[in-house]
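Quick question: what would this complex look like in 3D?
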Amino acid sequence: MRKVQDIRRYQGFFSMTLLCMLLLYGPLIIVMIYSFNDSPSIIRWEGFSLRWYYEVFFGLEAPKFKKAAFNSFSIAIMAATTATIIAVAAAVGMIRGGQFRAKTASFALLSLPLMVPEIVTAVATLIFFSTIGFVAGYATILVAHIVFCIPFAYLPIAARLENISSIYEEAAMDLYASRAQAFFRVLMPLMLPGIISGFLLAFVISLDDFIITNFVKGAGVETLPTAIFGAVKQGIKPDIMAISSLLLFLSIVFVTFSWFASRIGMKHS
Amino acid sequence: MNQIAIRISGMTKYYGTGPDAVRALHDVSFEIRNNEFFTLLGPSGCGKTTLLRIIGGFEEYSEGKLELFDEEIQDLPPNRRPVNTVFQHYALFPHLSIRDNVGFGLKMLGKPDSEIHRQTNKMLDLVRLSEYADRRPSQLSGGQKQRVALARALAPEPKVLLLDEPLSALDLKLRQSMRHELKQIREQLGITFIFVTHDQEEALIMSDRIAVMSHGSLQQVGTPEEIYNHPENRFVADFVGETNLVQGVIRELCSDAACVEYADQELSLAIQNENLFATEQQVHLSIRPEHINIKPMSSESSNLPALIKEKTFLGTDIQFLCRLKGGNELTTRVQTTTTDCATLLPGDSVELTIDTKKIVLLGD
């Protein structure tokens, strides 16, 4: 017997859910299915095959995609690492800093990239780089990625830290740990699940960013999303579906890890 | 022998600044002797925990002086004070094993591994948790966590151990056995314990001396006997133990006694210092329930006649709430086994005898 207030008792709950799921995941599932299609056509099914995956890794355009993949992953690792370090510092400052002037303003500044339309950030970043005479390329992408990754790394880290009582740091300092030792030996290990979660989230966000990257990348440097976009402009081929499916799979893996990481030790603390 | 471990003088602490500032401590001064079990007792919000955190180095204070073995320590951060704390909610490091928790302080002091190992084992033995050394704090019960917290704070051999209501999260039985254990461990190690509690029973049982606090001010410092038998003011009389606080008027005064009128009776009471009182002064009397005897009314008595209003069975004792003629009420307690009062019921007429030697006269 379901409870009276159970949401499943609302009329039309089931059809509404179905519609939402279809709109959200239908296209993704179709792309995944057709990435295994043994046909150059993207709409006619001609049987199962892995030829487009082979094409991605060993085909004519493989070097281009491999280069883009290398750029994407190296930028994502560096951007996520840097953003995570900054986010940890920011979280400790915001949450352990007590009440300080401009605390609300600081928080707004931290989460601004989440609220400003990405195209605005993209244009502004491009103008900024050209004003200071920074040559567009790999470095500009990296800097831009670090910046917009910070709030994504910050949120899970801050959420974790808010649940850690400052009594642990006090206990550490009471037991002769210096401030730095209290941080690295007690606070950091307790924050670690949040830090891992924040890192993975920042990594995924960096990996699949398109708009900002496309503005600041300069000529000749591609990341996976811009490379895919470039390829699609010349007509959609099934190998694009294969790449997209791989990226999707990777994102799911990372987000799943991030979710599990944020829950480690939750029941104990 | 009677070295002073901690001397606090003129300690005043405000939270916040300006007109909104809240005064947490007001001109508190006292000394804690070496090797003493010293208790800070008071209701919540009286400043006892603030005082403990000041000694530990977690709070700053506005005015006053704090000395540890005749050395001012107010500028030392917590990690430079030879003082360790047992926190109210234990604050065991959840990511470390019990062994690493206990050894944490020694490791931070840079002791060699062999010494850390030896001392950790010794402490785990002391609290009888050796077989739990490799577990995590989350795998222990409340009482076990409490003992780990104690072992962890004792391992670096501090000169003074601070205990912030360490027993308040335990159930009654465990609390009683931990009281005993704490007392034994202190005697075994011979270091100064400063214990914070709001539980007056706990304070009386465990302490060598007690400081009673209220609203940020020190009310009285003394041994449990002094605090219980000779409270210096109404707050102490009321807070420590149960008592009847009643009003009377001084009719006559001489150097060591006062004649006080209470409930149409003249009581002759011993006083310590006549300068505190004046004739015709309104005073309070503190009369402990166990110092009032109760028996069925007999005709030829000159005692206080009363009516029983309520009867409460407390196990070893029976407590009666009695109403006197003038409307005053007194609580009296008698032992179940030594009395024929067990048959008395609410509504019965009785007579009360007050042991006047035990009455404490309070000026304010």
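Answer marked as accepted. The interface with chain B takes residues 165, 167-168, 170-178, 181-182, 185-186, 189-190, 265, 268-269 of chain A (CB under 8 Å).
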